[in-house]
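Researcher: Quick test of sequence recovery. Tokens follow.
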């Protein structure tokens, strides 16, 4: 195989690995990744005039605008404090830090789990770029069993979309992780992960 052919093969393999998350993803969820920043930015700029939690707006804006850096998967693995901020036109709802973890399984799969708090998330992390990943998982409440992303369970007709959660993870320059969850035109949630 020529050097040129080998280079094309390696680039093709890398592109396939970085878009591997699109295989199980429902088409309706793709904008939550592809437009995550734009949707979050629009919500932060279009709060109702009487919106709750305006004092938390600068911190949410700073998190969204924080610069990213290159990092490999090892930067994700371990235990984290994760602070949640939910945003919709009616307000900015910031919560104290809970516990989250990222585990590398024996099969080489990265799994994210929010382990405390009443609202839980659990799912697989897929590579996206040299500084970002995609989360495909499920939401659960309190002690309910963790749910997997419905597309990974063969639910290709989208009957269980209400339990799905989609996120864009990014490594920030200062070592924190930003996750933009379920970005829509109506709401978004940020997680700020710190050690």
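Model:
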């Amino acid at each position: 195989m020529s050097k040129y052919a080998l280079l094309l093969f390696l680039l093709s393999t890398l592109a396939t690995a970085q878009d591997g998350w699109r295989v199980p993803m429902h088409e309706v969820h793709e904008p939550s990744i592809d437009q995550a920043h734009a949707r979050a930015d629009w919500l932060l700029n279009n709060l109702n005039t009487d919106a709750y939690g305006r004092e938390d707006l600068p911190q949410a804006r700073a998190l969204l605008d924080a610069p990213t850096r290159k990092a490999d998967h090892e930067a994700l693995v371990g235990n984290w404090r994760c602070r949640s901020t939910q945003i919709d036109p009616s307000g900015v709802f910031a919560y104290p830090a809970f516990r989250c973890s990222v585990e590398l399984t024996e099969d080489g799969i990265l799994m994210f789990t929010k382990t405390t708090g009443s609202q839980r998330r659990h799912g697989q992390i897929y590579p996206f770029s040299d500084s970002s990943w995609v989360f495909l998982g499920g939401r659960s409440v309190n002690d309910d069993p963790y749910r997997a992303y419905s597309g990974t369970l063969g639910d290709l007709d989208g009957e269980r979309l209400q339990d799905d959660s989609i996120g864009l993870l990014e490594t920030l320059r200062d070592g924190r992780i930003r996750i933009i969850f379920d970005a829509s035109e109506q709401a978004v949630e940020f997680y700020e992960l710190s050690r």
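The chain has one domain: 3-194.
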